[in-house]
């Protein structure tokens, strides 16, 4: 992040320390230059630059995390702000989560993409008809994905995991055929931020679409949440007399409609808001019996809370896993 001189990588706790520095500074006694002098940089690094800290303060001011007392021009050395500070007990318990949230707010989706790219993993599905792609990502104590990414394949490989590892993990899916979520319990500890999605939230959608001759295209697309559906029509197959009949699927979680098209391999990827919180899991547009809304140019996602609902069923399934075919 050249605008911030890569401070997000060099000094991951800087933003939180800044909020704490200006706690109860309602009279404006503390200035940016004092913060820069007080922040201990690693040996050999230059002192924190006031003009960069000023830009960080502006982002926090926009989100009402800091309150401006005095803001000047130029080097910003005498700028002064106030804040309510942080709950120190909470910060002591969850420092990584709180640093990640504040860094996401300040440094934006470029930082969020970098943070989640190493946690977003390609899935290769091999069938008799060929090969397709999917996506999974680390959350809770395992890997979340779309159910069809696993069920559509004859064999499934996930980057970074051997066949033997995958076959030793519990895999959970809903018994409801229209609940397109799955979870692979790897029992790896993973620190994550989970949020509640809201209509008009700005979000980032990440995944691995199928691109000829390439595997490492982890795509990201900025979008916003356009709507949340409480009920939706779902196609079902019955007797010949009832073929194609539509009914209201009231036992399914809400779906998010987002202004980013979910393409093939993007299914199962995370949907992340501008505070760095995972708010959803991408899924394909439901189709069947010739029914499809794919032409509308939107994407679908489940709220992340739907994963809890699915896991509560404790429905274990068997998947035919393989070694990831493109690991070195």
Describe the fold and architecture.
- The chain is α+β, with helices and mostly antiparallel strands and 328 residues long.
- It has two domains: 107 residues; 211 residues, Beta Barrel (Thrombin, subunit H), CATH 2.40.10.
- β3 and β4 form a beta hairpin.
H/E series, N to C?
A: HHHHEEHHEEEHEHEEEEEEEEEEHE
Please list the strands of the largest sheet in the order they lie side by side.
Answer: 6-3-4-5-8-7-17
Distance between the termini: 30 Å
Determine and state the CATH class of the largest domain: Mainly Beta
Architecture (CATH level 2) name of the largest domain: Beta Barrel
Coarse morphology: elongated
* Total helical elements: 9
- The percent range for helix content is 10-25%
Structural category? alpha+beta
The total number of structural domains is 2
Rg over CA atoms: 23 Å
Q: How would a crystallographer describe the biggest sheet?
A: 7 strands, antiparallel
**Low-pLDDT runs:** 234-248, 287-294
What is the β-strand count?
Answer: 17
Short description:
This protein is of the alpha+beta class.
Key structural traits:
328 residues; alpha+beta; Thrombin, subunit H; 2 domains; 7-stranded antiparallel beta sheet; 6-stranded antiparallel beta barrel
Task: Describe the secondary structure blueprint for this structure.
Blueprint: H1 7-10, H2 14-21, H3 32-38, H4 50-62, E1 67-70, E2 80-82, H5 88-93, H6 95-117, E3 120-127, E4 130-139, E5 142-145, H7 147-151, E6 155-158, H8 163-168, E7 170-173, E8 182-185, E9 202-207, E10 219-229, E11 233-235, E12 246-248, E13 255-258, E14 270-273, E15 278-283, E16 299-303, H9 305-312, E17 316-317
Antiparallel strand pairs: 1-2, 3-4, 3-6, 4-5, 5-8, 7-8, 7-17, 9-10, 9-14, 10-13, 11-12, 13-16, 14-15, 15-16
């Amino acid at each position: 992040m050249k605008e911030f001189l890569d401070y997000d990588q060099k000094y991951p706790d800087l933003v939180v320390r800044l909020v704490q520095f200006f706690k109860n500074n309602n009279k404006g006694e503390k200035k940016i230059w004092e913060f820069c002098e007080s922040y201990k940089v690693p040996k050999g690094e230059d002192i924190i630059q006031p003009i960069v800290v000023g830009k960080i303060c502006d982002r926090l001011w926009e989100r009402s995390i800091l309150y401006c007392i005095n803001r000047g021009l130029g080097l910003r050395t005498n700028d002064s702000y106030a804040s309510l500070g942080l709950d120190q007990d909470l910060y002591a318990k969850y420092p990584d989560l709180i640093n990640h949230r504040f860094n996401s707010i300040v440094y934006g989706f470029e930082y969020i993409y970098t943070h989640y790219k190493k946690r977003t993993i390609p899935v290769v599905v091999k069938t008799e008809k060929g090969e397709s792609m999917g996506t999974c990502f680390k959350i809770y104590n395992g890997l979340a994905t779309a159910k069809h990414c696993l069920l559509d394949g004859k064999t499934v490989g996930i980057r970074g995991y051997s066949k033997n590892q995958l076959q030793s993990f519990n895999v959970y899916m809903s018994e409801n055929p229209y609940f397109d979520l799955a979870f692979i319990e790897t029992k790896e500890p993973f620190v994550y931020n989970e949020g509640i999605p809201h209509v008009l939230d700005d979000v980032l959608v990440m995944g691995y679409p199928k691109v000829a001759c390439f595997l490492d295209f982890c795509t990201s697309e900025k979008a916003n949440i356009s709507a949340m559906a409480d009920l939706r029509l779902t196609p079902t197959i019955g007797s010949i007399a009832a073929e194609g009949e539509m009914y209201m699927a009231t036992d399914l979680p809400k779906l998010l409609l987002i202004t980013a098209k979910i393409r093939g391999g993007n299914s199962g990827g995370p949907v992340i808001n501008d505070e760095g919180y995972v708010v959803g899991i991408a899924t394909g547009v439901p189709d069947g019996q010739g029914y499809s809304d794919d032409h509308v140019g939107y994407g679908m996602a489940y709220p992340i809370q739907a994963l809890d609902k699915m896991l509560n069923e404790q429905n274990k399934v068997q998947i035919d896993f393989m070694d990831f075919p493109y690991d070195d």
